[in-house]
Fold this protein.
Amino acid sequence: MVSHPADSSLFEPMTRLARALPVGIFNNEPIRTYLEKIFSMHGRSDDFRELRRKLVVVATDLDSGRPVRFGEPGLDHVPISKAVQASTALPGLYPPALIDDRYYVDGVLLKTVHASVALEEGADLVLCVNPIVPVDTIRSVELGVMRRGQLTDRGLPTVLAQTFRTLVHSRMGAGLAAYETRYADRDVLVFEPRRDDYNMFFTNVFSFRKRKAVCEHAYQSTRRKLLRNRHRIEPILERHGLRLRTEALEEERDLWESVDLHGRRRRARPHHVKERLDKALAQIESLVAEQSS
């Protein structure tokens, strides 16, 4: 640029600099390591070929843009933990997973819901869980969640997240409509949050303190949705020999009591170091919240 100022611009060196930037914000290797550990415990397996039931994990070949089905012949030698790492490598958040000299990313690049994988295998009933739903802020001001009800107030990350959610959810609707025509004799049930579920949308899921509240909220909101839509869901389940236990949905239940977490916590003696760490994290989050407001 100094030697030939008339022939140079800032764009070219900035483009070269972009190549040095990391391809993902977070490291997904700990995810693979954790899954490998729990899948290798007694009675479990990290090998597709050793499973009693067929498992298919869908990802996208980054360099070809084609879908890949780990677990099917020719790709069943890949460890399950590695396949999950590839299938959850959302571009921008996590780096692509390297498998056999090829890079793989999240299968959402091609389809939001790969229900066709199960339908092609002959499944009569497919249950899908989709958390990627755009938020509708129309009631956010009324409920005191937002001051003006505009996502632009929350900055670029929120705007990009809403854009991504809207595109993906719209594409999912088109895909489900195609399934109704192509597999008219099958049933696909999709479970997803409400668009005005602000507790889910605006809670920091990376917060260690709030992860328990997020799980409890998801558990209770799913129970309420099943009960609210029971007249539509029950006939579908009955066609496949299943029953919706409405009596259990009508009961008041606590997620952590159901998994006996409270009891285990009472039996386990809390360590003073953990208590100090929890307190420090709470103080840090409180300070960050004050600075943001």
